[in-house]
Design brief:
3 helices; single chain; 128 residues; 5 strands; alpha+beta
Length: 128
Amino acid sequence: MHQAASTLRRASTFPADDPPLKTFAVSLALLAGASVAAPPEPRCAGAAVEQARKLLQFHLGSDDRIEIDKDAVALAPLPNPANRKQAFDVVEVWGYVYKGQYRMRFIYAQRPQHCVLMGQEILEYADL
């Protein structure tokens, strides 16, 4: 019985000295870490966060409870209605005032060096 337990123990241990297996394990760990990396910040994210505060203040007046989420999200581009060959970037930002939640979307012209605001929308997130 002692020999059967020893054989079972040897069969179930991880072969730590097997170089191909070590290489595979390290490669797998690196791939897993790479897939968890945060997505890049959208173009014009800083401008959108700054504009979000102004938009909420315009709609609600000056209120010390206004909070803007710093995480801006890039959405699918919108086609330019005046020229279908052009598109606009869309950046979504969330804002909060007391118990109210507001989804804001900012539409920017696709210009390499500048964030040119072309439009904006605000919607109160509410279950009516």
